[in-house]
Amino acid sequence: MMVAVYDDEVMKISSFCPRHRLLALLLLSGLSWLTAAAQSAPRPNAQLASKPVNLRVDALLKQMTLDEKIGQLVQYAAGYATGPGASNLKYDELAARGQLGSMLNVTGAEATNHYQHLAVEKSRLHIPILFGQDVIHGHRTTFPVPLALAASWDPAAVETVARFGATEARADGIAWVFSPMVDIARDPRWGRIVESAGEDPYLGSALARAWVHGYQQDDLSRPDSAAVSVKHFAAYGAAIAGRDYNATDMSEITLRQVYLEPYRAAVEAGAATLMSSFNSINGIPATANPFTLTQVLRNEWGFDGFVVSDWGAVAELRNHSIGDGPTVARKALEAGVDMDMEGGLYSTVIAAQVRSGAIPESVVDEAVRRILRVKFALGLFDNPYTPAGPAYDATPERRAAARKVAEETFVLLKNDAAGAGPLLPLTAKAQKVALIGPLADAPAEMLGAWAVTGDPKYAVTLKTALAARLGDRLLYAKGCGLLSGEDANVLERASFTDQPVAAAELPIPDDEKTIAEAVETAKKADLVILALGESASWMEGEAASRAYLGFTGTQQKLLEAVSATGKPVILIVLAGRPLEIKWAAEHVPAILEAWSPGIEAGPALVDVLFGDVNPSGKLPSSLPRAVGQEPLYYAQLPTGRPAHGDLSHMPRNSAERFVSRYMDEDNAALYPFGWGLSYTRFRYGQPTISRGEVPRRELLASGHRPMVKVGIDVKNTGSVAGTEVVQLYIRNTAASVEQPVRELKGFIRVALAPGESKHVELPLGFDELSFYNVDLQRIVEPTTYKIWVGGSSLATAETSLTVTE
Ligand code: NOJ
Fold first, then answer.
1. In whole angstroms, what is the distance from residue 24 CA to residue 18 CA?
2. To test ligand 1's pocket by mutation, which of 82, 192, 195 has the most ligand atoms within 8 angstroms of CB?
3. Which of 525, 524, 482, 477 lies closest to 503 in space, CA to CA?
4. Which of 50, 86, 345, 406 can bridge 597 by disulfide, Cβ–Cβ 3.0-4.6 Å?
5. What are phi and psi of 638, to 5 degrees?
6. Among 460, 461, 449, 479, CA closest to 540
7. Are 680 and 717 in contact (CB under 8 A)?
8. How many whole angstroms from 471 Cα to the centroid of ligand 1?
9. Residue whose CA is at the smallest distance from ligand 1 atom 3
10. Strand (E) or helix (H) holding 492
11. pLDDT value at position 767?
12. Catalytic: 310?
C-alpha cells in the first residue's frame, strides 16, 4: 500500500532527475513521519503541507550540496533597484551553478526565461528560479492604490485587482508577488500608508484575506495563480513619529490585537510567503526576531511557507548594533528569515558557519525546505518557463475593471448646498466648468506609488475625460506645480526608477502669474473643479514620510485664490495619504477624496461627478484637523478624563481644562474613520439582536461560528439608487484589559434602489468579541458589549449583548 502511494511520488521526483529513481525510493521509504506530522497539526495552506510536495522536497534536499542549499536562500535584483546598493553579480553563472534561488525585478517572459533556462538546464539539480516582484495595485494594468481600495470596503473589488495582478504577472514570468501589505497604518506622516488598508485591524484582515484568495485562488498550481508575500512582518506601520524604517515599540497586547491581526488572517487564508520588515519591535529587529518569525508565525499559526527579508534588511541588521555580518546573518536565519533579499550576506557568511558548526546544517535545511515547498506547490518544477504572449495592451476589459473598481474607492467627504441643492452631482445642463490644478492633467500621477510596470501612456486624466463630456464648455488652467521652486532640484536624485520626473511635479517658475491666470479662468466659469494633492511618485510610498500634511508647493494659495472668486468649488483630493485639509473643509462646498485612482482616473471621476455612479467609498483612515493629532485613529483606548462636547474653543473652566484634549484643536478627526456621503440618504432602523445573552462557555467553544446576529433595517430615503457600507462597532464595557472605545466588528455593502429597504444581519462570535488578556490568551469574559450600527464610526443606532458566566 505504502509503495503504491509513493510510486506516484517517485515518478514525480524521477521526472526532474531520472537517474535518481532508486535513491528516491530509498528516501521515500524513510519519510512516513512527514505525513504524520503534516496531519497532526492544523496547517493553513494544505498544498504546502501536503505529502506529495513534502516528499519531493525532502528527496531533492538530500541531493543538495551546502552551496546549492545556500543558493536557494538568496535573491538578487537583476533589474532596476527598489532599494539602496543593488548588487551587480554575474547572474548567468550563478544560475547555471544552481546558486540563484530567486530573482526580483526581472520582468517579462524573455528576461525570466533567460535565467530560467540556465537554472533548469545547466544546473546540476535543475531547480527553477522563483521570480518575484512588487505587484501592488495591479501589474501592467494599474488600479487604485491599496489605501483607495480599502476605501471601497469591498473584498470583491480587492480580489478583482489581485486576479488581474496575478494573471498579468504570470504572463511576465513572475509567480510571486510582494503583496499584500497588511501593515496597520495609523499615522499618515508615514508615506507607506498608501500601501495599506488604513488604521483598522478588522477591515485590514478582511481585505488581507481577499488579497490572498485573489492572488493564490486557494490553488498555487494554477497557471494564473501567484504566491503572495505578505508584508512587512511585523508592525512596520507603527514606525515611531511616522518616519520610515524607524523602530516600533508597543505592548504585546497591542502588537497581537492590532498589528498582527491582518497577518494572522492572511496566514489563515493560506499565504505562501511573508516578508520581514526593516523596523525593530520592542528592541528586537523584525528581521532577526524569533518571537514573531518562529513562535507566532510557525508555532502558533502553523505557517509552512517561507519568509524573505526586505531589501538588504539582513545586512542592515549590522546598523541595529546586534552583531557583525556573520552574527546578524546567523541571527536572521535562526530566527526564521529563509531568504536574503538583495543583501548578499547569506551567500557570503553562512556556509563557513555551517562548516565550523556555528550554525547547524538542519537550520539551513529547514529554510531550503520551506522555499522548495513553495516552488513545488507553484508547479515551477513541472512548468518552469513562461510562454511568450501578446504584448500588453489596456484592453476594454481591463479598462472596464479598473474603472469600476476606481468608482468604488472615491469618498464624498462633503457636499453642501450651492443654490437649490447639493453641489454634486453636476447636472448635464449648459454649465461652463473650469478645471484647475496640477493634478487635473497629469497621467503619471494617476498611477500611484507602486505602479512599477504601469505605464502613464494608459492613464486617462480628468481633463481628457471631462473634455469628452463637456466639449468647449470645459476651461482649463494648471494653476501651479506640485512643488515650489526650491524643492524641484531634489527630484532627479530621489527618483528610484529611470522614469522621467512627471510634468505635474515640476514647479512653475512664476506661480503668482499662473495662479492669477487660474483665477481669471475660474471667473469665466459657472463652477470650478480643483484637482489638488501630492505627488504620487515623489511624496507617497516608501521613504516618503512627511512632517507636514497639507497640499504641497503653492497649491493652498491656488485653492484660496480660486475660492475667493466666489464660484462654487468642487475639490478633488488626489493623494496617497490622509492630507490635512481643514481650510478646504471650512471653505469649499464639495470635497471628493479620490486617492491615486489608476489608469481610469478620469472616466471614473467623471462618472461620479455627473452622478452616473453614486459614490459609496468610506474612509479607511481618519482625516486629521492638524498633523499634531497624529497618530489619529478612532479605536482609541479609554482615558480616565475623557473630553466631551465642543472642544473648538479654549477651556473656560477646570472641568473643560483638565481632560484629555488639545488646548488649540479639537480631538476629533476632521472626517472620521468610516465616513463617506452619498447622493442619496440612508435611514437606519433600531438594531435588534438575535440573543441578548450568551454564556461565555458557549462562545469559547464556538470556534469561528457566529453566535448572535445583529439585525437592522436600512432604507434608501432619497431619489437615486445608492450603495451604503453598513458598519457595526462594539465596545466591551467591563474587560480585564481595557478595550477601545469603539471597534469595527462587521460591515457589508448594501445596494438600495430609491425607496428600497433591506434587512441586514451582521454576525458576532468569538472572533469578533474576543481580546487578549494579560496572559496573552485570546479570550472572552463575562461583560456587556455596546453595539452600534450605522454608516460611519460615529454610528448611533444602539443595542447590546451580554456575555454571562
Ligand atoms: C523594499 C520595500 O520595503 C518592499 O515593500 C518591497 O517589496 C521590496 N523593497 C522589493 O522591492
1. 10
2. 82
3. 482
4. 406
5. -70, 160
6. 449
7. yes
8. 43
9. 310
10. helix 491-494
11. 96
12. yes
pLDDT on residue 503? 55
Q: Half-sphere exposure of 67 toward its Cβ, with a 13 Å CA cutoff? A: 8
Residue 713 CA to residue 767 CA, distance in Å, equals 24
Question: pLDDT by residue (tens digit) across 299-325?
Answer: 999 999 999 999 999 999 999 999 999
Ligand 1 atom nearest 134 alpha carbon: 7
Report the nearest atom of ligand 1 relative to the CA of 132.
Answer: 10
| CA 179 to ligand 1 centroid distance, Å | 10
Q: Determine the pLDDT at residue 505.
A: 57
**Position 495: which residue type?**
S
Residue type, 157: A
* 181 DSSP 8-state letter: B
- Planar angle of CA 137, 403, 719, nearest 5 degrees: 130
Instruction: Find the 134 Cα to ligand 1 centroid distance in Å.
Output: 7
Determine contact, residues 73/339, Cβ cutoff 8 Å: yes
Give residue 486's pLDDT: 58
Task: Give the chain's residues under pLDDT 70.
Answer: 1-41, 85-86, 419-420, 428-430, 485-509
How far apart (Å, rounded) are the C-alpha atoms in residues 200 and 193? Answer: 12
SS (HEC) of 86-115: CCCCCHHHHHHCCCCCEEECCCCHHHHHHH
CB atoms within 10 A of CB 241: 13
Enumerate the β-bridge partners of residue 763.
Answer: 709
Q: Assess contact for 780 and 766: CB atoms under 8 A.
A: yes
If one residue of 196, 311, 452 were mutated to test the ligand 1 pocket, choosing by the most ligand atoms within 8 A of its CB, it would be: 311
- Residue 347 grid cell: 551567500
pLDDT of residue 21: 36
pLDDT in tens, 589-648: 999 999 999 999 999 999 999 999 999 999 999 999 999 999 999 999 999 999 988 888
318 Cβ contact list (under 8 Å, min separation 6): 324, 325, 328
Element (H, E) at 138: none
Q: Residue 71 and residue 787: Cα distance in Å, rounded?
A: 54
